Amino acid sequence: MSRVSILALALGLAASSLALTASAATPSANTPSAAITAAIADVNRPQADRDRDGDRKPAEMLAFAGVKPGDKVVDFMPGAGYFTRLFAKAVGPKGRVYTLLPGELATRSQKAVDGQKALAQDKAYGNIVPLVQPVNAPVFPEKVDVVWTSQNYHDLHDAFLGPADVAAVNKAIFDALKPGGVYIVLDHAGDKGSGLRDTETLHRIDPETVKKEVEAAGFVLDGEDDALRNSADNHSLKVFDPSLRGHTDQFVFKFRKPK
């Protein structure tokens, strides 16, 4: 081999080594930040929440959503507050977390109202603000960075909320976000092509239906996360079935409001 060839080979190997080193040093988009890691390690989180971390993968979910210190986040239909507490710690004292409870649900479920109030009054989380608003026309105190809804989008289509005017809901969320803000929809997957068939019976929804509805409000699909997918779930059982609960096949979409 000539001296020129040896030199070229050496330069090529050096360049490859530098590229691999740079790749290893650069975190991926879904690498949890220090703020997210600290939020998950928060000693104030209920043990019941900690016990679900293996199934719900909170570090990856918050990283996928891009939640960071100082953000304003809306937790739409927060349930028992599993993600609410994580958001509160991840955004820190300069951030804000709004729990949005539809008024239609609040009038029927005192448990939901009491749970939301308890979150806001917990001294360990001083940046949570409860909101009770009409589902079709929610009003927000300010523009926000992230709107999150977990395992509830399908409920917009059944008697649980009326059903709601889904186009109006998505448009209200679009308007509430800052330009470049994101809308995260995590829900139980239904069969491909099933549309809205199983929203009330099995509490599932066809992922493609969600895409079409949300994009119709002006959003652009900006990513999907497969961390919660489960190929062993054949979509035939209700999500509350004891053999499947907590392990359903779930999709996670990130929609972005164009700048």
Automatic annotation (TrEMBL):
Biological process annotations from GO: methylation
Molecular functions per Gene Ontology: methyltransferase activity
Residues in coiled coil: none
UniProtKB keywords: Methyltransferase, Signal, Transferase
Keyword Methyltransferase annotated: yes
Extent of the signal sequence: 1-24
Protein name: Putative methyltransferase
Record lineage: Bacteria, Pseudomonadati, Pseudomonadota, Alphaproteobacteria, Rhodospirillales
